[in-house]
Amino acid sequence: MDEHKCTVCSSKIKGTYCSNCGQKRGEKPTNILRLFLDFVEQVISIQKSDFATMLQVIKRPQFIVENYYNGNTGYYSSPGKVMLFTILILIIHMTFISNLILGVDFSAGGLNLEYTFLFMFIFIFLVVGQLVFFRRGFLLAKHIIATTYIVSTFITFFMLFYWIVLLTIGEDSVFTFTGFILSIVIWQSIVFTKKQNFLNYFLNALFVLGLFLILVIVISNDFSLNSAN
């Protein structure tokens, strides 16, 4: 085999990568160590990009949502990738740390809680956001993008915070969970509030919180949230 010829497009390779298709030039056959290191590298790379996107969701929520909604993809992680990262965090938590989620006992029949917890809050805040901000129009896709980004981001960050709490001061009761809910309320209001001033943010946040509590009461027959204490 000609090592200076790309195996994919047959172009001549000058350097490490093929200038035509981008494939990396092979130096020698892959061994077990290289296979393992490549796997670790890919996992870390994916998680770094997802975590970086979550930081941007916190810093610039409106920009991140608008950017993806307008079709600008490829640079920041998609809502789906961020959601999968959060599911991984929840699985790790439920498997190795605690059956409590953010300090509360979340019960949902025989359903897998790591999925149910995430999807339930995405659904609730999707409905709440569309109802509270109905004057902006029926922007279902935009609300799905926003709620997936925001809920996934704050589950991840508050879950990491909850781990720190467990390691330092013990059980947290319901305080972390309350912070999680309030953060989603505030950030959802930031994304969809048209007149950007404190009063409008505050009033919209109150509407979002009020409607959220009403919906939680309505569906409380199927799901239950109880304090750890």
Helix content: 55-70%
Can you tell me the number of structural domains? 1
Q: Which range does the strand content fall in?
A: under 5%
Distance between the termini: 67 Å
Structural class: mainly alpha
List the uncertain runs.
none
Kindly report the spatial arrangement of strands forming the biggest sheet: 1-2
Total strands: the figure is 2
Specify Rg, calculated over alpha carbons. Answer: 22 Å
Mean pLDDT over all positions: 83
Q: Count the helices. How many? A: 7
H/E element sequence: HHHEHHHHE
Shape designation:
globular
**Main sheet record:** 2 strands, antiparallel
Would you kindly provide a written description of the structure presented here, covering whatever features stand out?
This protein has one domain. Helix content is 63%, strand content 3%. The protein has 7 helices and 2 strands. Strands 1-2 form a two-stranded antiparallel ribbon. The longest helix is centred in the C-terminal third of the chain and has 29 residues. The protein is globular. The model has no long low-confidence stretch (mean pLDDT 83).
